[in-house]
User: Fold this.
Amino acid sequence: MNLRLLRNAWSNLLGAAVPALAALATVPLVVAGLGEAGYGLYALVTAIVGYFAVIDINVTAGSVKYIAGQHARGEHERVAETLCFGLVVYLLVGAAGAVAIYVCAELLVTRVFAVAPALVSEAVDCLRLAALGFLFGQLQSYLNSVPQGLMRFDVSGLIEMVFGTLVPLSTVAVLLLGQGLFEVIALRVLASLLHCGVLWLGVRRLLPDLRWRWPGRSLRRDILGFSSWSFLSRFAALSYAHADKLVIGALVGVTGLAYFTVAATLANRVLGLSFRLSGIFFPAASALAAGGELARLDRAYLKATRYVVYLNASMLVLLAVFAYPLLTLWIGPDFARQGAAVLALTASSQFVDSLTSLPTLVNDGMGHPRLSGLFAVARALAGLGCVAAGVAGWGIVGAAWGHLLAASVFTLAFLAVVHGRTVPTRLGRLCAHAYLPGMGAAAAAAAVALAVGLAHFVLILGMTVALLAVLGMAVVVLPQDRRWAWARVKALAGG
Assistant:
């Protein structure tokens, strides 16, 4: 189980890490090609389309859970029923969202957001084109979950890695050819359609005997029942993830939105990678809980948390301490002046939020999505209020402070509630064995970097990375894992 989890986690991570690197590397070129106002408009269109995904009732969660169990028991007809039901649901959701975006495009651009008059016509056209991408995106999201339910993250990760890398590179190529935002949106719509086709071919290879089968009322009720509570978490996450940009677009304008989006994108891309490592824990926790192996789940949970927390804390140190020079090198001094504080604060809030990822997956795997869903909704509502107040008072930096305040309060509350109740690990034990080693080592590295100063950015950054690696191996990595890693290195060297 451990090696299988490791392979799936690695595949899932690569599926996000390589596209994230490609996206981050191409952001400066995209900003230069579209201009600050054009990039802000691009971020606004993306946020609007992403916000409409709140109508997704998250049948992917129910499908992953039920496909995993059905496949393990050899119930191939039931797998087909679950898959066909999900496809129909997402076809309907995608069509409904696409129609709504198309119909409301002009109203949103002219009445809701602060779009310059010269950009209104282009914004409406781009948003209406992106409506078609919403349909394909919903189907893509569901088809991507099917290999994950079969514990074949290698398939979903590989396809995601390929398309996630080609799309940003193709975007730059389109801009270099002298095209504009409309052509960029068209490229992404086409890529989403092709992505769906390749995913479908992958699913057919994994399930060669797949035939159309409509599920009975009992299975539909079970899938929708589980998904309905998981939907609360997805609804809250999607709403909150895009609402800050909508608020900034309405109160500040697209140029301020561009500064905020660039800084937030870097933090989200880097710290979001660890969720891909954690994501495989949902089906694994479901399987261990179903078998009554709670002690084994506890050990796996402690180890995974120990490593993920240190990874995220290390990323936080690099992003927060080196926010200004990183943005200067990546985008330019103007973006660094406007976005350095946003990057440091957003990275901090992302780190705090990441502490809830593994507990949420275990809580849901144990069959309690209602609790995580209610917390997610409350956190999104309070967070949106904090962000709106922050934007009104202090602009984009105020929005970042609002994120951090909401993340801190609700993360502490969630950790206190679930541990020892729905998650079979006491919070005190988790802090001692998982939180303190990683956070302490990362804090020591941050203190050294700040004490030395940033006069020689590249040298100090390299020293900080090396220090984080040494502290991680000495303080965070467990002795048995160090021995295993060293044995693997010697075996590779000997081979």
User: Anything to note?
Assistant: The chain has two domains: 1-215, 257-490. Residues 375 and 413 are 9 Å apart (CA to CA). The chain has a mean pLDDT of 84. DSSP finds 17 helices and no strands in the chain.
